[in-house]
Amino acid sequence: MEAFLSSTLAVAIAEIGDKTQLLALFLAARFNQKSAIIAGIFVSTLLNHLLSAVIGVWLAQFVSPEMMKWIVGISFIAVGLWLLVPDKDGATNNRWLQYGAFGATVVLFFLAEIGDKTQIATVLLAAKYQSMLWVVAGSTLGLMLANVPVVYLGHALMKKIPAKAVRLAACALFCILGAATLLGSGIALS
């Protein structure tokens, strides 16, 4: 259950202000099919995060537990610091829009998540907890919690959420997870 809760919270907070939220906003403005967009976000996220969790669990099999704790702990801190850097707005490739709300959302979200902070976080969480089911369920729920309101509330919501404060909170959360991972292995941070 810890894997599920940690994954949900970490990904939901990390996703706020992310480029995929801007993509959700764009798609909601472009298509008037909110349920198709939400279904596309879900399918894309589930596939992307399942692949990420498989990689995380696979990686953990080839690295000693002590080394894995170092890698995961330091990586969590690195992701936390990375969250302080806001995403740049990117142009959306219009060729995918011809596939409709669901198809465009699946393709564009999957592509946008490749190498994204939440994908990296999913790899790290799966490596740490060795629980693909709970990490994928939590990270997918976290991404949905952050993006579904954007589809429905759009611009009004984005104006009320201070992106800088959210990035600082997400940074703190990932740094705490990293420190807890390192301390949990008996490593004293000095």
TrEMBL record:
Q: Which UniProt keywords apply?
A: Membrane, Transmembrane, Transmembrane helix
Q: Say which domain of life the source belongs to.
A: Bacteria
Membrane spanning residue stretches: 36-61, 67-84, 96-112, 132-153, 165-189
Q: Which InterPro entries match?
A: GDT1-like (IPR001727)
Where does the record place it? Membrane
Q: Membrane topology per the record?
A: Multi-pass membrane protein
- State the signal peptide span: none
Q: What is one GO cellular-component annotation here?
A: membrane
Query: Any idea which GO molecular function terms this record carries?
Result: metal ion transmembrane transporter activity
Q: What is its main location?
A: membrane
Instruction: Give the record's family classification.
Output: Belongs to the GDT1 family.
Its protein name is GDT1 family protein
Q: Which organism encodes this protein?
A: Uruburuella suis
